[in-house]
Specification:
single chain, 2 helices, alpha+beta
Length: 75
Amino acid sequence: MKRLIMAVLFAAVAAAPALAAKYVLVKDTVGNCSAVASSPRGYAGMTIVSKKKYPSIEAANKALDGVKGCGGLVR
């Protein structure tokens, strides 16, 4: 059930990049890290791993390579 919720959340976040100007790096409850569009409401079940905001998804994905403590990367 948690994986289904996470998949739906990732899909919703992936559909929103056109509306967002900044991207942040987050870690989900399983330990996977991902770059997602920033949201003023935060992310249920996720923690932000970097306070820096990135101007593009490409820049955020590049920064994912340097994040420590991730069980895996979701791009």
